[in-house]
Amino acid sequence: MATVTATGGTTLSRTLRSYSYWSYQYRRIWRASLATGFLTPALFLAAMGLGLGSLVNHHGSSAARLGGVTYLQFIAPGLMAAAAMQMAAIEGAFPVMGGIKWIRTYHAMLATPLRVTDVLYGHLLWMATRVALVSTIFLGVMAAFGAPRSPEVLAAVPVAVLTGMAMAAPVAAFTATRETDQPLIAVFRFVVIPMFLFSGTFFPISQLPGWLRPLAYVTPLWHGVALSRALSLGNAGVAASVGHVAYLAGCIAIGVIAGRRTFRRRLAA
Amino acid sequence: MPALPTPSAASEQPLIQARGLTKSFGDFVAVDGIDFDVAAGEAFGFLGPNGAGKTSTMRMIACMSPVTSGTLRVLGLDPATDGSRIRSRIGLVPQDDTLDLELTVLDNLLVYGRYFDLPRKVIRERARQLLEFAQLSDRAADKVDPLSGGLKRRLTIARSLISEPELLLLDEPTTGLDPQARHLLWDRLYRLKQQGVTLVLTTHYMDEAEQLCDRLVIMDKGVIAAEGSPRQLIDRYSTREVLELRFAVDDHTPLAEKLAGLGERIETLPDRLLVYTHDGDAAEREVEGRGLTPLVSFVRRSTLEDVFLHLTGRTLVD
């Protein structure tokens, strides 16, 4: 046994090793985390989809603007993408600051064969896992409410992961450049929450003033919401879907490239 | 896996070799062209005041911080290209603990072992042995957060040993610990050295350097001010004995003049005078002979502290 020696290994192996820390940590909180995963969509869909929806559905012209579907059917897939985005933004901010400053997990990892990119990839992969988990639960709750109109809604889970990571990766890159969590809170107030409210989750962006609409198109969330909704309603066109996926993938790529730079600058100076 | 160097090869090739090693952060030069070798099996120390460049040097050896200029070889490899391989064979005890406070003592060891890609069974077995070595076995299931500083430090050292490193780097291993905790740590480190682990440590405690280091360098303002064994340094930069004198006066400076010619050199401190001499008792008699009656007078052996203060000055660094 004394002959077993540590090795560097491949990038994939190292990424999975840094990932294993987060899964270790999750063991402490998985119960609470799953309970929240069920409760949040259940409460939102009950209040917004059914409660608010009962008002919206009785309003003739709004039904037409929603494309002839009920408000629950309209809002559920959008909320799924929006919830993924919001959660991923949190995961990309505070645990990253923790890894750098509060718990200093990243520094512990970097004293081992793991490299800065392994630390980054492992953590991003973990964020994607978390989003996938929560989105799967969301899908189940949504199905229990009878919201999806097409089996294509299954593809909304990977879309939610893309949407989440399109936010988490850039946020993580940004977090690595900050010294305190104040700017992260500002990101929430001025980016995440406005995006949550105005990217087509709760109402079609055709309702926005014309000058604001282009702003909504630029947000990754709008692409996520549009695609998620199209899948759930069963009217996803190939060209539009490819466009949305490409846009989200582009945001992720930018976030990862930026993260490689900011993490290296912060952790390997 | 590359074969480990045989003992004879290891003794020929230094485990760490630095030539003109430099680290700058923008305009600030933290380490300014230092040369040193660390041989396999020795305990080597970097002694110096805060800001001397010890931690920057340590981080470069640990391949966690790129070398600005000069050459550095660790285990015969270049940190710039083989960082991951080097780190798989060394252990690091950082200045600030990087333990996960929410995880248990045991889990901290298990998860750290995973970073090294060791089989789970091997990690478990080593974790059990290391907890015993660090005298933490009965705390294995406890969370780390409420543990005392000394216990956390022992856990950090245990954790750094999970990969059975050939070289252990310790950045101020006992700073902030009480005397009992320090002595226990020193004992554990001494045992590791007996087992053949090469130790490299930084410290600003003279007694720690004297206790643990076969050889050390004194760093000041990014450069090496002196190098040798603790005994050699004392012989070279201090006298055999020191006579400490305290008088019932506010200012000791005028008294230093009355003692002129005594010993090799006299150091005036705010609260006392130090007479560096080869014969403390003779100097003490001479003080009486000059009609002076100190409040306190005693002779002690010269320590690394005298060397250190002589070389790095008595002004407070930060």
Descriptive overview:
The complex is a heterodimer of chains A (269) and B (318). By secondary structure, chain A is an all-alpha fold. Chain A is built from 11 helices and no strands. The two termini of chain A are 37 Å apart. In chain A, 48% of the residues are buried. Chain B is of the alpha/beta class and 318 residues long. Chain B is 36% helix and 25% strand. Chain B contains 12 helices and 13 strands. In chain B, the strands form 3 sheets. In chain B, strands 5-6-7-3-8-9 form a 6-stranded mixed sheet, with helices on both faces. In chain B, a hairpin with a 2-residue loop joins strand 8 and strand 9. The longest helix of chain B is centred in the middle third of the chain and has 16 residues. Chain B is globular, with a radius of gyration of 23 Å. The N terminus of chain B is likely disordered. Chains A and B meet through helix 1 and helix 5 of A and helix 3 and helix 4 of B.
As a percent range, the share of helical residues of chain A equals: over 70%
Radius of gyration of chain B: 23 Å
Question: How many strands, which pairing sense, and closed or not: the largest β-sheet of chain B?
Answer: 6 strands, mixed
Distance between the termini of chain B: 46 Å
User: What is the count of β-strands of chain B?
Assistant: 13
Give the helix level of chain B as a range of percent: 25-40%
**Most extensive chain contact?**
A-B, 31 and 36 residues
The proportion of strand residues of chain A reads: under 5%
Overall pLDDT metric of chain B: 90
Strand segment count of chain A: 0
In percent terms, what proportion of residues of chain B is strand?
25-35%
Give the overall silhouette of chain B.
globular
**Distance between the ends of chain A:** 37 Å
Low-pLDDT segments of chain B: 1-10
